Amino acid sequence: MDILTQNRSLLKVGFKLWECSIDLLSYLSDPKSDISFEGKRVVEIGCGHGLPGIYCAQNAASSVSFQDLNSDVIKQATIHNSFLNLEDASDDKLAFYSGDWGRDLLSDILCQDGKFDLDSR
Q1: Which of 28, 29, 46, 109 has the highest count of CB atoms within 10 angstroms of its CB?
Q2: Cβ–Cβ under 8 Å, residues 44 and 64
Q3: How far is Cα 13 from Cα 104, in angstroms, rounded to an integer?
Q4: Order of strands, edge to edge, in the sheet holding 63-68?
């Protein structure tokens, strides 16, 4: 497989709704998991459709930053899904980023948005 074919394949994976997103949503929404997003600042890395991030925003996260390698995924899937599913979607609450992690994109996100909340239970 040449590098162009490989890169095209990589760019398409964000349009697939991965089963792990559904599994994560099941875990997050399970009352037994006892997870609160109220007031939390969340970043979803490799977000694709953005379902876990959208769930966090629906459940009182103060902000959610979505990141995916493919800018088309952000434009056509993540942003679209976010605004369809969030009544209070705004630039203050949601941020969208695309690019390769190797270009210090995540450092830029963390520096611009400040620290994010992490619960390591």
Answers
A1: 109
A2: yes
A3: 21
A4: 41-45, 63-68, 94-98
The whole-angstrom separation of Cα 39 and Cα 60 is: 6
Q: pTM score, two decimals?
A: 0.80
Residue ranges of the chain with pLDDT lower than 50? 1-5, 119-121
Nearest to 46 by CA among 119, 113, 120, 105: 105
Single-letter amino acid, residue 107: S
CA dihedral defined by 20, 25, 28, 32, rounded to 10 degrees? -100
Q: By three-state DSSP, how is residue 49 classified?
A: coil
* Distance (Å, whole) CA 39 – CA 36: 9
